[in-house]
Amino acid sequence: MTRLISTLVLLGLLAACGRGAGPSSSPQPLLYPNETPEIRALVNEYAARYDVPAALVHRVIQRESDYRPTARNGPYYGMMQILPQTARTMGHDGPPSELLDAETNLRYAVRYLRGAWLLSDGDFDRAVGWYARGYYYEARNRCMLVETGLLDREIRRDCR
Fold first, then answer.
1. Span 108-143, pLDDT tens digits
2. Could you tell me where the beta strands, DSSP code E, fall in 4-150?
3. Which of 93, 80, 74 is CA-nearest to residue 131?
4. How far apart, in whole angstroms, are the C-alpha atoms of residue 82 and residue 114?
5. Residues 6+ apart with CB under 8 A from 86
6. How far apart (Å, rounded) are the C-alpha atoms in residues 109 and 131?
7. Strand, helix or coil at 146?
8. Tell me, what's the pLDDT at 160?
9. Which of 12, 45, 101, 102 is the most buried (most CB within 10 A)?
10. CA–CA distance, 132 with 24 (Å, rounded to integer)
11. Domains by residue range for the chain, with CATH
């Protein structure tokens, strides 16, 4: 009987040793190429502020600029390649050149990404697609113009 108890205790201890460290001690993922610790902190801050998965923000940044805050491509600005008009819709009232600042770009582009995330029903691929091509009409048709931050009130009568 003592031998059985000793064996069970030993097995329990071995099983406990096989468990990984708890979530509080897990290290941050390695930085992506061109990402800095400062950009990582900003991404985490704005992802939390707008309730968007940080992994989704990283995915858009990698796709759009590869973490280059001063990236320009035609009319698009910054790390997340946001249009100045879109940034104005999200509350930006400065010149487009301000969108080349990493924090300013994240403030307005992650807010816009939040709407794409809401419309995607939790699907990263769909969220990236809505972000890239725009989602005004989808938000309008689903009575989500206010929730996505595109307008202050719904325009469809059946949404009011």
1. 999 999 999 999 999 999 999 999 999 999 999 999
2. 72-73, 76-77
3. 80
4. 13
5. 108, 112, 134
6. 9
7. coil
8. 83
9. 102
10. 34
11. 31-133 (1.10.530.10)
The encoded tokens of residue 101 equal: 């600042």
Name the 3-class secondary structure at 73. strand
> Which residues, in sequence order, are CB contacts of 61 under 8 Å at separation 6+?
43, 67, 79, 80
Closest CA to 56 of 67, 64, 47, 65: 47
- Residue pair 137/145 in contact (Cβ under 8 Å)? The answer is no
- Spacing of C-alpha 33 from chain mean position: 18
**Tens digit of each residue's pLDDT (9 = 90 or more) over 12-55:** 555 555 544 444 445 667 999 999 999 999 999 999 999 999 99
DSSP letter at 156 equals: S
How big is the chain by its Cα radius of gyration, in Å?
22
